[in-house]
Amino acid sequence: MKPTWNYENFLNDQGYLFVAGVDEVGRGPIAGPVVSAAVILDAGADHKWYRDINDSKALSAGKREKLATLIKDHATSFSIASLDSEAVDKMGIVGATKATMLDAILGLGVKPDHVLVDAVTLPELGVPSTSLFKGDTLCKSIAAASIVAKVARDYEMGVWHDIYPMYGFSKHKGYPSREHVSNLNKFGPSPIHRLSFAPVRNFYLEANVNFMVKSC
């Protein structure tokens, strides 16, 4: 099943001219930022590439990058917001996710009349909004936002890979793959690891236990 313009078309028919899709990337990783994007597209535009818009996880990296460029070039407006690992540790992943979504929406150059959000509810937004479970598989605008957010976060993780190549960030993007966890245990956490997330938290707990045992 691929996302459609059904939600946007329905809202347009109800008088909501500018409908934004919002999604985040980076809730599951143990390192790196959480990134959200908000995108307003013209559902009635005749772009052939619209048919390729899909949940970012269902697309290859090359396809995502091409679509992200097209989306940003043709969007009525788009915005990207992120919070680093330190903020995630302080706010919790749910709080950080909502904060980046709100920042992305507020960063739009055109104020949306209605916002379609993937899974999360944003009652504090002050604009009519609809939360859609697995919205990136149902709604083109949310899928477009997921693509823009994913490409932005992947690029940042590539930059961090150049700084800390021993962790392999360019491959796993901070998600807790077997290789990532092995490198974490070998080299210890980097400054971009989320200290409140297992197995980063477990690394420090085990290190403290080992220190106490040796001290005894």
Structural notes for this entry:
- The protein is α/β, with parallel strands linked by helices and 216 residues long.
- The protein has a single domain (6-215), classed as Nucleotidyltransferase, domain 5, CATH 3.30.420.10.
- It has 7 helices and 5 strands, in the order H-E-E-H-E-H-E-E-H-H-H-H.
- It has helices at residues 6-13, 61-74, 85-106, 140-163, 169-172, 178-187, 200-215, and strands at 19-25, 34-40, 77-83, 114-118, 129-132.
- The protein has a 5-stranded mixed sheet with strand order 3-2-1-4-5.
- A hairpin with an 8-residue loop joins strand 1 and strand 2 (34-40).
- Helix 2 crosses helix 4.
- The radius of gyration is 19 Å and the shape is globular.
- The N and C termini lie far apart (60 Å).
Give the tags.
alpha/beta; 5 strands; 5-stranded mixed sheet; Nucleotidyltransferase, domain 5; about 220 residues; disordered C terminus; globular
